[in-house]
Each structure stands twice: as C-alpha cells, then as structure tokens.
C-alpha cells in the first residue's frame, strides 16, 4: 500500500512558537530591503500558519521542508528554495533534520535595483508561490548574507543584496508544488489521491466520477490547478517519493508502492521531472 505524504498539520510546540515570534519581531524591526536568517529544524518540527509582510526565499541546505497553504502543498529538498510572496499564509513542516537559510525581501525592494541602474524599468520580483532550483551563485550569496547579518551596512553588503535580487529572477522553476482546486468535489478527490498516490490514474476515471465528459473535465482541472491531470499526478507521486528517498528507502520499494510497472518507468518519470535519477538526486545535489 502506498505510504502517504507526511501530514502537514501537526501541533506547534511552545518553544517553536516562541522562537518564531521572536524572529518575526526582529524581522519587522529591520529597515533593510533584504534580511537573512538561518534556522535548524528537527524532524517533525511544525511552524503553525503565519504570514509576513516580506516575501521569503526559503532554502534548506539539508533535510526537506514542506510548506502548506490553502492553495496546495510544496516540497523543498536541498538544492532548491521556495519563493513565498508577501502576505501568503503558510505553515512549515520539517521532514528530517533540516538546516534552512532564508532571505526576507521587502515589497519595494525592486526599487533598489532601479536605483542602481537609472533608466531601466523597475525590477519585478515573482508574484506567485513556487519551488525554484538554487544556482551556485544564489547559494553563495544567501550564505554570505546570513553571515553578514547584524553587521553595519557597507558597499559590499549592498552589492550582495543587489546581486541576490537579480538572481532571484533567474532561478529556474521546479515542479515540486501540488496546487489544489477550489471546486469542492474535485478538491476532495485530489486530497484523497494525495493520501494514497498512484501512477495509475486515468482522466476517464475521474471525469466519470465528476459526471463530466473527458474534454469538460480536462478544461476544469487545468483551470482549477494550472496543470494537466497527468502532470499533477506525477507531481503528487514525486511529493510522496522524495521524503522516502531522503530517509534512505530503496527506490524499488518506492516505485512499486506508487504503482509503477517497473523501476525504470519510475526512474524515467523522476529524471524527466527533476533532471536526475532518484538514486543520485539527493546524493549528488550541490552542497552549501
């Protein structure tokens, strides 16, 4: 039987809640356009629903973090980051011991780039929540920003901030999000599938359950999620597989649990979606 994705709704401990409240207070007191923090989460740590006035780039250098919003769930493994626009309410869960580095970007930070390059149109930071691949440059910039936190502003720190803002716009988007529809019955079907994902999911099966034609269902699903059912299914399988791979489970067991006819079939899907086979994806990720 397929193992479900670990539950995104856990109880926040008083220690985590207090630490997070102190961090938000510190964050709100900072005038700088970009502020960097690091944090160490232990397995199953949970940060309850919250939001902040700045956008956040959340990057785990080890472990995996899962972020849940009303719109869906996003899984962030090492070598990746989650861009969370300002004002989006979200909860965070650690899968394994996760060391994270984050930069919090003020809403008007794009003006910093415009000041550096007069005559150029204002920089537009991403407006949608998504997982991105971290470039070597971005990883180095974030680490240096964390190291410099609390030190007096300098031309070098201003250069690092400007470089980070430029690089955010260049980060490649990765298919590690699982948007949920708002349509009641369809959302219920999607959540049931996530609890027990399988490679064997046919459009006709879901269209019939919705009492719709294949064509009408296809249009509805893409309108509700922005994805085809096939792509959404593959991403649901990825979100189920990644925590198990990170925990060291055999690829064969994961592939068979997800209903793939063979390990090569699972490996082909994994490589197509993430650019590397599952046996080497986490082992060969870029390290900070």
Task: Tell me the layout of helices and strands.
Layout: H1 14-28, E1 34-41, E2 46-50, E3 55-69, E4 72-76, E5 80-84, E6 90-105, H2 110-116, E7 130-133, H3 136-148, H4 155-168, E8 173-174, E9 177-179, H5 184-195, H6 203-209, H7 214-225, H8 229-246, H9 251-257, H10 263-274, H11 278-281
Antiparallel strand pairs: 1-6, 2-6, 3-4, 3-5, 3-6, 4-9, 5-7, 7-8
Name some characteristics of this structure.
288 residues, alpha+beta, nine-stranded antiparallel sheet, 9 strands
Overview of the structural elements:
- With 288 residues, the protein is α+β, with helices and mostly antiparallel strands.
- It is built from eleven helices and nine strands.
- Strands 1, 2, 3, 4, 5, 6, 7, 8 and 9 form a nine-stranded antiparallel beta sheet that branches.
- Strand 3 (55-69) and strand 4 form a beta hairpin.
- It is globular and about 60 Å long.
- Residues 1-9 and 284-288 have low confidence and may be disordered.
Q: Return Rg in Å.
A: 20 Å
Overall 3D shape:
globular
Q: What structural class results from the helix and strand content?
A: alpha+beta
Low-confidence stretches: 1-9, 284-288
Per DSSP, the total helix count is: 11
Fraction in helix: 40-55%
Strand portion, in percent? 15-25%
What is this entry, summarized?
This protein is an alpha+beta fold and 288 residues long. The protein has helices at residues 14-28, 110-116, 136-148, 155-168, 184-195, 203-209, 214-225, 229-246, 251-257, 263-274, 278-281, and strands at residues 34-41, 46-50, 55-69, 72-76, 80-84, 90-105, 130-133, 173-174, 177-179.
């Amino acid at each position: 039987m397929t193992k479900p994705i670990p539950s995104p709704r856990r109880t926040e401990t008083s220690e985590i809640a207090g630490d997070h409240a102190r961090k938000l207070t510190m964050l709100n007191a900072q005038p700088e356009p970009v502020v960097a923090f690091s944090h160490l989460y232990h397995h199953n740590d949970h940060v309850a629903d919250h939001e902040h006035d700045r956008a956040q780039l959340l990057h785990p250098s080890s472990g995996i973090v899962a972020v849940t919003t009303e719109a869906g769930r996003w899984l962030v493994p090492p070598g990746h980051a989650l861009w969370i626009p300002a004002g989006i309410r979200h909860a965070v869960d650690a899968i394994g011991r996760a060391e994270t580095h984050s930069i919090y970007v003020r809403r008007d930070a794009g003006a910093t780039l415009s000041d550096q390059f007069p005559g150029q149109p204002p920089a537009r930071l991403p407006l949608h929540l998504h997982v991105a691949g971290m470039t070597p440059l971005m990883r180095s910039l974030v680490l240096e920003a964390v190291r410099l936190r609390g030190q007096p502003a300098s031309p070098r720190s201003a250069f690092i901030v400007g470089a980070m803002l430029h690089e955010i716009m260049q980060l490649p988007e990765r298919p590690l999000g699982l948007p949920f529809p708002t349509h009641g019955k369809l959302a219920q079907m999607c959540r049931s599938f996530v609890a027990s994902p399988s490679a064997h999911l046919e459009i006709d099966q879901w269209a019939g359950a919705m009492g719709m034609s294949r064509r009408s269902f296809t249009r509805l699903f893409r309108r509700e999620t922005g994805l085809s059912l096939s792509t959404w299914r593959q991403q649901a399988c990825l979100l189920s597989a990644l925590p198990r791979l990170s925990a060291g489970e055999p690829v064969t067991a994961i592939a068979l649990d997800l209903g793939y006819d063979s390990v090569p079939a699972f490996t082909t899907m994994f490589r197509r979606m993430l650019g590397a086979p599952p046996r080497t994806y986490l082992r060969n990720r870029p390290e900070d």
